[in-house]
Write a structure and sequence with these properties.
Blueprint (H helix, E strand, L loop, with lengths): L2 H7 L5 H9 L3 E3 L2 E2 L14 E3 L2 E3 L6 E6 L29 E2 L8 E7 L2 H8 L7 E7 L5 H9 L13 E4 L5 E6 L6 H8 L4 E9 L2 E2 L9 E3 L2 H9 L3
Parallel strand pairs: 7-11
Antiparallel strand pairs: 1-2, 1-3, 3-4, 5-7, 5-13, 6-7, 8-10, 8-11, 9-10, 11-12
Length: 236
């Protein structure tokens, strides 16, 4: 890969900026200044320094976002703000998209990436990727209703949900629910099926990822190397 293309792909510099930096000695390859930005490199092996900053090659980007209320899980929307608008402008040059959807008023863990193959695998029904949500309900959940929800209930459109897992808090009006599917408004509709109502919903885990408790609503960070490895190997 050419140096200028590498720096452009990494979102560091345009090709013209790379050429200018190279002529001024601002690009160093394996400890040696490189005056020609068209020189080919191996981005996975060579050490590239651009204007004093080492640039690490990333084939894909993975971002953990703590989704706030009111944002839609889409790349663009004509009415509401999207989760991508919470990222800095420099990230918008990549072909990032939300992996899966959270309802507009559902909070919590959202994975944003440009790895379409991985997203397809994580969202495929055959892989049964677990998603856990913290919730609050209008009424305490009876033991009978908990058993019904865990076994699977029939939604308003006739769809029968797959088995779920529910961990109840004291008082039984809040807890955590784990699904292996993600139908439209599924948890809300499941509680509707047992004459109850969801009043708060936050996703706290998705596959191997757990929401970083240090992230405030609307904040984000790139995944750590350990999280990235776990994600890329998950359900292979």
């Amino acid at each position: 890969m050419r140096i200028d293309k590498f720096l452009s792909t990494m979102g560091i510099a345009t090709r013209s900026e790379s050429s200018s930096a190279a002529r001024k000695g601002g690009i160093v390859v394996n400890g040696t200044p490189c005056r020609d930005a068209s020189k080919h490199i191996d981005p996975e092996k060579d050490v590239i320094i651009y204007c004093g900053r080492e640039v690490t090659y990333k084939k894909y980007r993975y971002i953990m976002l703590n989704k706030p209320d009111g944002y839609v899980s889409a790349t663009e929307d004509g009415k509401d703000p999207t989760v991508l608008e919470l990222l800095p402008a420099e990230y918008r040059k990549f072909n990032l998209f939300p992996c899966g959807r959270l309802d507009k008023n559902t909070l919590g863990l959202m994975l944003i990436t440009d790895n379409g193959e991985l997203a397809h695998r994580l969202l495929s029904p055959k892989h049964h990727v677990k998603k856990t949500y913290a919730y609050k309900s209008k009424f305490p959940l009876s033991e009978e209703d908990r058993i019904l929800l865990e076994a699977g209930v029939t939604l308003d459109d006739g769809y029968e949900t797959k088995p779920a897992q529910i961990e109840l808090d004291e008082g039984r009006a809040s807890g955590r629910i784990t699904l292996i599917e993600g139908k439209y408004h599924q948890i809300k509709r499941m509680f509707d099926a047992v004459k109850n109502k969801i009043t708060y919903l936050e996703r706290i885990s998705f596959g191997p990822l757990t929401l970083d408790a240090s992230l405030k609503r609307g904040e984000w960070r790139e995944l750590t190397d350990e999280e990235t490895r776990a994600l890329e190997e998950y359900e292979k």
